[in-house]
Write a structure and sequence with these properties.
The complex is a heterodimer of chains A (about 110) and B (about 120). Chain A is mainly beta and about 110 residues long. Chain A is built from no helices and eleven strands. In chain A, strands 2, 4, 5, 9, 10 and 11 form a six-stranded mixed beta sheet that branches. Chain A has a five-stranded antiparallel beta sheet with strand order 1-3-8-7-6, with no helix packed on it. The N and C termini of chain A lie far apart (about 40 Å). Chain B contains no helices and eleven strands. The chains are: A mainly beta (about 110), B mainly beta (about 120). Chains A and B meet through strand 4 and strand 5 of A and strand 5, strand 9 and strand 10 of B.
Chain lengths: ~110, ~120
């Protein structure tokens, strides 16, 4: 059974810092990995999707990397802003099992002005 | 593009009543829709996967007679919580997968907060 773990569970940083969020998964037979952002009481916003054949994806200040063989992904946020404060979720799509997404428990990020 | 809406955004009901939540893909066709529930400070748990025109596939431990799912068209899926009880209070989120999208990317609705008194 696929398990996804995110570290740290919570992170508080001053504005302007660069930061890294970590995601690990137990079964490397994945189709792709997706990073989401969730604001309190809201749904999910897709940030980046990395196919299993890719090593990284970039969007603005966000960069996500994937090391499929070691079961790890990182989300790098450059020059953090208070508006980045949210919960960040990592999810992997398995190659089998109907291609369901398995989510980590998220990292709650607070960027202080 | 790829917008998913849910209605209602929140609902409060009495114990024993049934509640219907709608999930719509607004600008794309979704052959597959997913229903998740999320408890406070926890991650999303998949409840069921529904394919247009066929019966939903429920995850282990999810009662199909309690959580009725109908996926009648490529743009609409509904989740009905029957005879709701306080323990059913949760945040329900639907998701849709774009038909024909090679990346298999899923897009999520804004969620529905259900409170059962």
């Amino acid at each position: 059974k696929q398990e996804v773990t995110q570290i740290p569970a919570a992170l508080s940083v001053p504005e302007g810092e660069n930061l890294v969020l970590n995601c690990s998964f137990t079964d490397s037979a994945i189709y792709n990995l997706q990073w989401f952002r969730q604001d309190p009481g809201k749904g999910l916003t897709s940030l980046l999707l990395i196919q299993s054949s890719q090593r990284e994806q970039t969007s603005g200040r966000l960069n996500a990397s994937l090391d499929k063989s070691s079961g790890r992904s990182t989300l790098y946020i450059a020059a953090s802003q208070p508006g980045d404060s949210a919960t960040y979720l990592c999810a992997v799509r398995e190659e089998t099992s109907g291609s369901r997404l398995t989510f980590g428990e998220g990292t709650q990020l607070t960027v202080n002005p | 593009g790829a917008v998913v809406s849910q209605h209602p955004s929140w609902v409060i009901c009495k114990s024993g009543t049934s509640v219907k939540i709608e999930c719509r893909s607004l600008d794309f066709q979704a052959t597959t829709m997913f229903w998740y529930r999320q408890f406070p400070k926890q991650s999303l748990m998949l409840m069921a996967t529904s394919n247009e025109g066929s019966k939903a596939t429920y995850e282990q431990g999810v009662e199909k007679d309690k959580f009725l799912i109908n996926h009648a068209s490529l743009t609409l899926s509904t989740l009905t919580v029957t005879s709701a009880h306080p323990e059913d209070s949760s945040f329900y989120i639907c998701s849709a997968r774009v038909h024909g999208n090679r990346a298999n990317e899923q897009f999520f609705g804004p969620g529905t907060r259900l409170t059962v008194l």
